[in-house]
Amino acid sequence: MKQETKDVKVKILEAAKKLFARGGFEGTTVRQICEEAGVALALVSYHFGGKENVFYALFESSVPRFLSTSYELKDPEADLKHFIHEFVQLRLAEPELINLLQQEIIMQSPRMEKLQTYIYTLWKQLRNILEAGKEQGCFHFASLKQTLHFIIGALIFTRNVPALDDLFESSVNEQENADCAEDIAANTIHFILNGLRRNTV
């Protein structure tokens, strides 16, 4: 019985993640979620208490393992590389969840207040790494706020966009490597660190 309950909840969450990412929270109904999951309509209320709780449960069940990472900040460059690498892995593993997060941030939805519990912990880690790097002279930037926003933007949008493929004339090998998670992480780290190392301000 417990396994059946778990399976039903997983089906509902997977269906909700897919539909929320495609149509947004407001544009998705409980009926659509249940139809996608192949479960009875009443089961969303029974297991979660409503659509909003399904939404929060998506983030609660997908909290990244590095959320609890404690950086000593003795080597801010190494810490930043680890942070970027882990976030890129999350971005690639949970594209629908990150797309949903983008929507909520852009819309400044009323659900953002509760989501801050998960999001702000990550951004505080990044802020601490940047501050330590600047204090130790390995990072150079004029505005912590703007630098944090630039990096967050680069991380959240770390993905391949098929609609842009026609802009590039790439070799087959380069196209294959573009889909490699390790290469995406390495390129993102290279891009961000190059910007932070340049003392041009």
Automatic annotation (TrEMBL):
Transmembrane segments: none annotated. Keywords: DNA-binding. One of its GO terms (biological process) is regulation of DNA-templated transcription. InterPro entries: DNA-bd_HTH_TetR-type_CS, Homeodomain-like_sf, HTH-type_TetR-like_transc_reg, HTH_TetR, NicS_C, Tet_transcr_reg_TetR-rel_C_sf. GO terms for molecular function: DNA binding. It comes from the Bacteria. SUPFAM superfamilies: Homeodomain-like, Tetracyclin repressor-like, C-terminal domain. Residues 29-48 bind DNA. Residues 6-66 form the HTH tetR-type domain. This is TetR family transcriptional regulator.
